[in-house]
Design goal:
With 351 residues, this protein is of the alpha+beta class. The protein is 42% helix and 13% strand. It folds into 2 domains: 3-215, Endonuclease III, domain 1; 227-343, Nucleoside Triphosphate Pyrophosphohydrolase, CATH 3.90.79. The protein has helices spanning 3-15, 27-36, 42-55, 59-64, 67-74, 81-96, 105-109, 116-127, 136-146, 155-168, 174-187, 206-210, 266-274, 333-343; strands spanning 227-237, 240-245, 256-257, 260-261, 280-283, 287-290, 295-304, 318-322. Strands 1, 2, 3, 4, 5, 6, 7 and 8 form an 8-stranded mixed β-sheet that branches. A hairpin with a 2-residue loop joins strand 1 and strand 2. It is elongated, with a radius of gyration of 24 Å. The model has no long low-confidence stretch (mean pLDDT 91).
Length: 351
Amino acid sequence: MNDFAERLLCWYDEHGRKDLPWQSEGPYRVWVSEIMLQQTQVQTVIPYYQRFVERFPDVNTLADASIDDVLHHWSGLGYYARARNLHKAAQIVRDEHEGVFPDTLEDVQALPGIGRSTAGAILSLAYGQRHAILDGNAKRVLARHAAIEGWPGKTHVANQLWEFAEAYTPTTRVDDYTQAIMDLGATLCTRTKPACALCPLHIDCVAYGRGVINAYPGRKAKQIKPLKETTMLIAINENSVYLERRPAAGIWGGLWSLPEIDSVSVDSWCERTVGSTATKREQWQTMRHSFSHYDLDIQPVVVQFMQRANTVADRDDALWYCLDDAPPGGLAAPVQKLIETLRNSEHVENR
């Protein structure tokens, strides 16, 4: 075993995380956790993971579920393409692998939403196979230890990091090593204020030796996020609010949302969709929601109807959602906030 891995494993034996709810739980649950952990921290993931596997305890249950049910149990975790890919992948495992999660790198990488690092993590943690990983934590540890210049999002930088990742991954205790390098990055070799003195790798860490630990990994060139605007209609009748399912692709894909109007007036929407003129109208304070690539200012407008004359009937992509009921599926985060505000407003009858 190489010295890098040996030191890391000795540290892990004493300080590593060994009580995560998906550890030693088999490939299905390791897979679910790894998808949830993409761009999301462990402490945020844990309660979502626990609720998710309680509802979908195995791959066939997940595959047989409706996408609305899956998105509902993902609501609030963000990056909803992960949930859609997880659902699609579960159906592939059910239909093409007889409900058994595959155990080869080729087959795992062929599943939607799984790249090289995620596949390596699943196979090493669940099956003990020797595969390197390069998640955000591992990138940070390796970039600092070898002082690799540049932003890891660039191909030539990533290639250098993969070379080190492959070289340091041992042939034994691969599952522990994989967890160890993720734990080190999450607990000691953090993005800010790393605890270098406690790190088992600091003796030969090039960035630490040069006193430039915070220079690694390289940062992506900063860009000013554009600001977009939209108007969301909160159309209510008695204790129901009108919701639409968003297209499968794009922001909030497949989630239920309040209708957005950019080029159609409120009155035109009411006449066309509800077949009636709103009896009350109220504009709420603008809400800002931030995505990774832009900020969105949402202008909520409440329109209230006394009756739903000639309204469209509930259908697969639109419905009147009774606020007393469970949501019809996943809701976008700002929509959840607006509906909760609506529940506590004077527009809804006391129940």
